[in-house]
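User: Please run a holo structure prediction.
Assistant: Happy to. Please share the sequence and the ligand.
User: Here you go; the ligand is adenosine-5'-triphosphate.
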Amino acid sequence: MAKILIIDDEETVCDSMALIGRRSGHETSCARTLAAGLELANSEEFDLVFLDVRMPDGNGLELLPRLTQAPSRPDIIIMTGYGDPRGAELAINSGAWDYIEKGCSAKDITLTLVRALEYRKQKLTLTGARGVVALKRESIIGNSPSLTTCLDLVACAAGSEAGVLIMGETGTGKELFARAVHQNSKRAEKQFVVVDCASLPETLVESILFGHDKGAFTGAERAREGLVAEAHGGTLFLDEVGELPLAAQKAFLRVLQERRFRPVGSPREIESDFRLVAATNRDLNAMAQSGEFRSDLLFRLSSVVINLPPLRERSDDIKELARYYMDKFCERNGLSPKGSCPEFMATLMAYIWPGNIREFINTIERTVISAREEPVLFAQHLPTGIRAQVVQSVVGHRTMPAPEAQYAPVGAGGELPRLNDFRETVYAKAEKQYLADLMSVSRNDISTACRLSGLSQSRLYALLKTHELHRSQ
Ligand SMILES: Nc1ncnc2c1ncn2[C@@H]1O[C@H](COP(=O)(O)OP(=O)(O)OP(=O)(O)O)[C@@H](O)[C@H]1O
């Protein structure tokens, strides 16, 4: 008997779904709001959750990542509005197991329920326990719901031989996750071989991947084993797989199907038993549609797909990441461990991190080194570019008049002011705006404002007075 939770604000839906669940021999509970649903999911061990999208206290899809992280890691079936293909697509992309349309027949609901429970049984048998197997995380830091969902997929993928495709922006940890799949698999004792598809010279792709015999081409003075053979028994990681030339894609597809290949210039075929993990920051589906990537290869690569979130979407992890890397770089540079002030963390959390964790790590390293023996890191220790962007984004969120309207040089009567007068007015307005924003960002705290702006206290007070700004403005 499974335990099923139904989250829907309509009493009739709850009752009929509960009836279907009970008729199939399961125990059911209902919650009429998202908050109540989450509370129940966190206090009891549910196997399956039927979740309505439109709820009085929010959108069900937004709750989905937190629900999947409830102690029993339930599988979720979304209930979408009738004939809403967009809702169905969103549901699946958000990590739901399946979706049903509201108002579909009891038979269809029962079928979805049976399939979901069968899948769950299989998953739990594979992992050997309720929820995730103890995962060797390597040095993967963070516990945000979106990162934990990715770790769950690593655990599932590691227990199978399926091809894994890891997608994500640059610096999100694709290689780190690929290594985690390998380290947690039964191939962990063997090689993890990295192929950087972006740097393969087109003329040498085949020989680098499949090796070559002595004399196979000019310059091939001795036979060389290719990367595919090197990965025998282990894992082959195709990094930046979207850059693999079409000819190499074709050759690779054959290797994947037959697990055999012929080194360049060799009469013999070689066998290699490897597990494939690939990564990309490109949209392979779009590339397959435009003919730039083979769809049959894409199909083989993507039995399990892990979508790594960009750092800006999991700012919950920033404190832990900062702590980890601050300690690491202090130790590496022979410095005592450092503390940090709240504005330091607030600035790290407000920045958008276009280079993701790689940029984050470099920033922490630079900051730790530049602070030398200072025991506490302040926002001012961070690179100016980062602080400026954070201040700008706060300012950008306000509704400001367009600059030309604000500083129009032509007066109402059509006359132009003298350039120096105009410049002074614009300068004074800009300075006043900056100071107002500075005080807002630093929450009227003078020492924070001084650190952010680089102004001395006396200069800041003088400027605030000149512009008749008070600390509360
Ligand atoms: N969750 C994480 N916790 C700690 N460190 C991480 C995490 N994710 C990534 N890193 C670190 O960030 C750096 C970049 O990670 P990685 O090289 O795996 O990213 P990538 O997505 O493969 O980048 P690219 O697309 O540029 O190849 C590495 O030093 C890695 O150890």
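The first helix runs from residue 11 to 23.
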